[in-house]
């Protein structure tokens, strides 16, 4: 096993495909595939499971990747020390449901980064894809929520994929509405009061199950319903159509201004937001720094940090 082979594995995971990794490494696809197969044969493990859809990290592969990244990073530090080599680009990827606080923490992480070059990725994406990203180590961390309705299904899926849920905070459901909405002045709102307003939610693609919904109370019937794919569109519709969405209530005025407000929803339900990690992986210092920023922000918003 060589350092170059370790770099090949790391690059394949970053790209999500053998062909794209080979292209970026300026080698042929068969050469890259053979190099990875040589490591697998030498160690007696399968790093990637292969299918018509491409590659995915195996359980052993996720653990191997953690060690491979550490070795590659240490070799780069040696080269910087003794060869005066320019520091390599630092990498970190996060996948999250559509939360303003997760973006805010990411902004703070980037501002605090003390390296000359970096390549960070923040994916605001669908629930199932967050799980897939962390399973296959395309992202080190995934942000999602659990509640009494979806917990059994989500936890089962996480366990099957050797992922761990780490609770961050528990929130009572709120609604986001325009500051001009007739309900904006109320101390709380009910579902009955909301029924004539358009209900906005994030679409979940082929995994559009109630259990994967980003919005709590997903089985409640709505006379007017609009699904969107990104947070900017949802916020525009909150204002333009006097719509509403159900959420944690954590809203960043620094990022979103004062045109959207949060109002408590009358319900006995609650939701626990947390981050998921691959149980076989060791987090980079940037991923650990992101978690620290999440905890700090949540505490600033007045929530009790759970872990």
Furnish the topology, listing elements before pairings.
Layout: H1 3-15, H2 18-25, H3 29-43, E1 48-51, E2 54-57, H4 59-83, E3 90-96, H5 100-112, E4 118-124, H6 127-135, E5 141-146, H7 151-160, E6 163-171, E7 174-178, H8 191-194, E8 199-202, E9 225-228, H9 231-240, E10 245-247, H10 253-256, E11 260-264, E12 271-278, H11 285-300
Parallel strand pairs: 3-4, 3-5, 8-9
Antiparallel strand pairs: 1-2, 5-12, 6-12, 7-10, 7-11
Helix pairs in contact: 1-2, 1-3, 1-4, 2-3, 5-11
How many independent structural domains? 2
Give the low-pLDDT segments: none
Using DSSP, what is the number of strands? 12
Give the topology string: H per helix, E per strand: HHHEEHEHEHEHEEHEEHEHEEH
The assigned structural class equals alpha/beta
Number of helices: 11
Radius of gyration over all CA atoms, rounded: 22 Å
The appropriate CATH architecture of the largest domain is 3-Layer(aba) Sandwich
Assess the beta-strand content as a share of residues.
15-25%
Distance between the termini: 38 Å
CATH topology of the largest domain: D-Maltodextrin-Binding Protein, domain 2
Text of the CATH class of the largest domain: Alpha Beta
Mean pLDDT, nearest integer? Answer: 88
- The strands making up the biggest β-sheet line up spatially as 4-3-5-12-6
What is the global morphology?
Answer: elongated
Reported for the largest beta sheet, the result is:
5 strands, mixed
- Helix content range: 40-55%
């Amino acid at each position: 096993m060589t350092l170059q082979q370790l770099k090949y594995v790391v690059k394949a995971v970053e790209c999500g495909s053998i062909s794209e990794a080979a292209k970026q490494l300026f080698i042929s696809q068969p050469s890259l595939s053979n190099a990875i197969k040589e490591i697998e044969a030498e160690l007696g493990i399968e790093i990637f499971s292969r299918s018509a859809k491409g590659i995915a990290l195996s359980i052993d592969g996720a653990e191997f990747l953690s060690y491979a990244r550490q070795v590659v990073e240490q070799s780069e530090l040696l080269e910087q020390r003794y060869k005066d080599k320019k520091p390599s680009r630092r990498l970190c990827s996060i996948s999250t449901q559509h939360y303003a606080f997760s973006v805010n923490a990411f902004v703070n992480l980037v501002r605090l980064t003390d390296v000359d070059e970096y390549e960070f990725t923040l994916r605001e994406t669908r629930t199932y894809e967050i799980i897939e990203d962390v399973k296959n180590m395309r992202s080190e961390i995934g942000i999602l929520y659990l509640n009494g309705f979806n917990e059994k299904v989500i936890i089962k899926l996480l366990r099957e994929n050797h992922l761990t849920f780490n609770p961050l905070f528990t929130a009572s459901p709120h609604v986001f509405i325009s500051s001009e909405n007739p309900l904006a002045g109320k101390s709380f709102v009910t579902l009955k009061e909301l029924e004539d307003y358009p209900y906005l939610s994030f679409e979940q693609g082929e995994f559009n199950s109630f259990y994967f919904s980003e919005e709590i109370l997903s089985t409640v019937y709505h006379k007017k319903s609009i699904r969107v794919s990104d947070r900017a569109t949802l916020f525009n519709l909150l204002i333009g159509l006097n719509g509403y969405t159900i959420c944690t209530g954590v809203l960043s005025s620094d990022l979103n201004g004062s045109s959207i407000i949060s109002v408590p929803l009358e319900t006995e339900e609650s939701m626990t937001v947390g981050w998921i990690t691959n149980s076989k992986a060791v987090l980079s210092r940037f991923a650990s720094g992101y978690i620290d920023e999440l905890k700090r922000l949540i505490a600033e918003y007045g929530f009790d940090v759970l872990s």
